Amino acid sequence: MARGGTEPAAGDGAGPATGTQPAAIEPAVEELLDALDSVDADGWYPAVDVERPWSTANPRIAGEFARPNAIRAYLRRELSALMRSGATVTVRASRPALDFNDPGFFTALDEDRVDLRGKKLFLFGPERMALSLDRLSHYCGTPAESFQRHVLFTNYAMHVESFRERFPDAEGPARPGVQMPAWHQRTPDGGGVSLVNIGVGPSNAKTITDHLAVLRPDTMIMIGHCGGLRNHQALGDYVLATAYQRADHVLDEVLPLDIPVIPNHRLNTMLLDSLDAAGARYRLGVVHTTDNRNWEFNQGRTLAMMKSARSIAVDMESATIAANGFRYRIPNATLLCVSDKPLHAEPKLAGGAQPFYEASKRRHLGIALAALDRVRRDYPDGLPNQELRAADEPLLGTETGD
Fold this sequence. Notes:
This protein has 402 residues and is of the alpha/beta class. The protein has 2 domains: 17-122, AMP nucleoside phosphorylase, N-terminal domain (amp nucleosidase, domain 1), CATH 3.30.1730; 131-382, Nucleoside phosphorylase domain (Rossmann fold, 3-Layer(aba) Sandwich). The chain is built from 10 helices and 13 strands. The strands form 2 sheets. The protein has a 5-stranded mixed barrel with strand order 9-12-11-10-13, surrounded by 4 helices. The chain has a 4-stranded antiparallel β-sheet with strand order 1-4-2-3, covered by helices on one side. A hairpin with an 8-residue loop joins β2 (44-51) and β3 (60-64). The chain is globular. It starts with 16 loop residues before the first strand and ends in a 24-residue tail after the last helix.
């Protein structure tokens, strides 16, 4: 295959692969994936062409990728499903990959551009994909290729400690001082768990999920702490979010507040079963997410919002992750642990925090991991996400619909 500025010759990549011979699908898909990597290595954006004879509206759909090896497991699953349904899939070189410092690269990042002439294959363009993969490595300290199909977010290092105790061979940051360190319990099929310590606040929550979305994870779960807002909650109780009150403000311009955002029902059901199996105390309800860590200093408006929504907990990240999960079609949920009760004279103070943290961290992580074990068992091809799909949904991630 030619390199540099010379376009690879026709036929250098993988030829058409079709689903008419089921026994040949697996090796055919691997050949296609290897061809994608080869085109990428030669400095071109690889393209995938899908022909679906059953579709009258969109019989042929094409899409470009960057660093396809970062989503190899996802592409394997999606292309295999299409070929089993009778689609023909072809890989080719599309165009030379742009450098990050190319002026055209910035222009191509705009997600708001819409081409109504045809259905998209993938949710993101190759420039957007390339930048996010690079930034994941920058923020998390690990290659984007290390991320697994299931992602947990925390805002405390103690959950990282518990994760590393549970998975002593987990891959972590290659350098100190990264902003949002990630740890990965890697499996051969990519179906393991990644944990990211996003720190405190909605800005980091938006940043990491903006970039993580290009990997198309199967699940995202926030396992942070919260302030309990009800009389009968106690420190150490859990909160399973059923809805969110968005006062984080970081996504208001791209996702208006009148658009409902809720967690994935099946994922919530599995978390609920895990809570019951663990004999844990919990409440279900609305989580209020704020961008003001010191909202107690100006209480009036925030308290009125919490009361009107009947919120049972307050935090600084959950609604942001859920809103981006909705935007980017990723099943998500929130399992929080009550660490303080700001309305009931039980604020989070330095002296009393450590004993609570030590008592809760292993159990909290274990409940979430138990739910993910069930996801893998019951939905090996990913959770259904019908409630996240748009009318003009890209082909990948929507099975084989028209």
